[in-house]
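Form 7-S
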Amino acid sequence: MKRVLTIAGSDSGGGAGIQADIKTISAIGCYAASAITAVTAQNTLGVVAVEALSPEIVEQQIRAVLDDIGADAVKIGMLANTEIVELVASLMREYDPPFIVLDPVLVATSGDRLTRSSATEAILTQLMPLATVITPNIPEAEQLTGVAIESPLSYDAAWQVLRQQGAHAVLLKGGHLDGRQLTDTLFTVKDTLPHTYLHERIDTQNTHGTGCTLSSAIASYLALGHPLSRAVGHATDFIHQAIAAGSDLHIGEGHGPVDHFFRFRDR
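Output:
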């Protein structure tokens, strides 16, 4: 069984973070291990509180997993502060896993900030150059690059900035843009032309944890041996189907979760 380690924050509501990652990795058929970087008190309405764990316990979790179980891919999500970013970057250089998927989680679906702004620079300079692919949504890409993204036509300008900053591949996610069609685009230093993935927008407020789910799905498909462009294609299909399956769920009064286990319910 292929092994995927997720390094991210915990979501008490179960829809995002470590909880969404473990559900996604398991649903796709890999073994999920985890290292929690922060504990959040949150639900579908928003984030009530955030408490970062000490760098020491974060390091011990990561080493405990990688020294024994190992990882065919690592997904990195919420890193609350600069100290944890620097620690994770150091450990990734030391252990050098085959694939690293970096989801630069800066703000929750509810709009609540999850990562200190001072950590953003460390994510760019220390973690991004190590990543196989990074997966920012539009607000995150704008914050990382300073480029205003009003349509997919602006994707290339954002990619050029991230490429100059050391990115090897970037998946720009179009869920925050208006329109019935969602455009996700993968840029890589190896490919002359980008890869575009199109899906119809689903009319639902149950979108909590979509970014966590997508990045974990990419890590899982990379672990299973798919090349990056195909792994992203499978992952975007997975999150689209999970959103569709969970579109009518009523869990909480705000942004509810997707249905990570839709494949098993179909059976």
